[in-house]
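wait is this the right file?? whatever heres the structure
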């Protein structure tokens, strides 16, 4: 079952979205350590998601997930605006400070909790598959979940390392343009979330 988990996690890991944009922008800001920490946000946020799917989501009205998607879209847009403001005066940092890296992890975890995509993944695919596999064989269920997170986080962490490799060649002007591009992508991702889920939330 670990192969199934790896495949599902890889598909989620390479899918474009707010978390991937955050991995890129945070790597540009503070280096590969901050990017890898941002990539690891699902390890923090998905505990809430899994508990919510198992204990809460099934008891909530059908509009709960779309409303969460709209709220998440608004938060992603706000993150884009913050990134754009930073880009106006941003300068390349020589290294990642612990405070900025942990702040990036908190922001990424918040976005991941508010994004409907992890909830949909666990409510429709990973949740039922994990429970079924666990009932048949707990080691197989553990292997499924392990494979999922190894490839989900590993794909984004690899992206952070690759981007960090070229980070030193960026000038301050190039850095600011990269942040502006990231800010635009975050805003577009947030608007897409709102457009996708607002009709269902109304």
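ok assuming it is, sequence goes like this
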């Amino acid at each position: 079952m670990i192969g199934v988990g790896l495949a599902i996690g890889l598909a989620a890991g390479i899918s474009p979205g707010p978390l991937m944009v955050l991995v890129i922008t945070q790597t540009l800001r503070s280096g590969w350590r901050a990017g890898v920490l941002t990539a690891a946000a699902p390890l923090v946020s998905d505990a809430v998601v899994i508990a919510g799917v198992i204990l809460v989501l099934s008891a909530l009205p059908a509009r709960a997930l779309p409303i969460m998607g709209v709220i998440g879209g608004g938060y992603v847009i706000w993150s884009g605006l913050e990134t754009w403001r930073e880009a106006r005066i941003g300068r390349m940092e020589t290294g990642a400070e612990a405070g900025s890296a942990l702040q990036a992890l908190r922001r990424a975890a918040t976005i991941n909790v508010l994004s409907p995509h992890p909830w949909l993944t666990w409510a429709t695919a990973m949740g039922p598959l994990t429970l079924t596999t666990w009932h048949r064989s707990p080691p197989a269920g553990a292997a499924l979940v392990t494979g999922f997170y190894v490839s989900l986080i590993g794909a984004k962490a690899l992206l952070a390392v690759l981007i960090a490799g070229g980070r030193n060649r960026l000038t301050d002007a190039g850095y600011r343009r990269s942040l502006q591009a990231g800010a635009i992508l975050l805003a577009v991702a947030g608007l897409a979330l709102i457009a996708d889920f607002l009709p269902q939330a109304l």
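The chain has a mean pLDDT of 79. so i think its the right one actually
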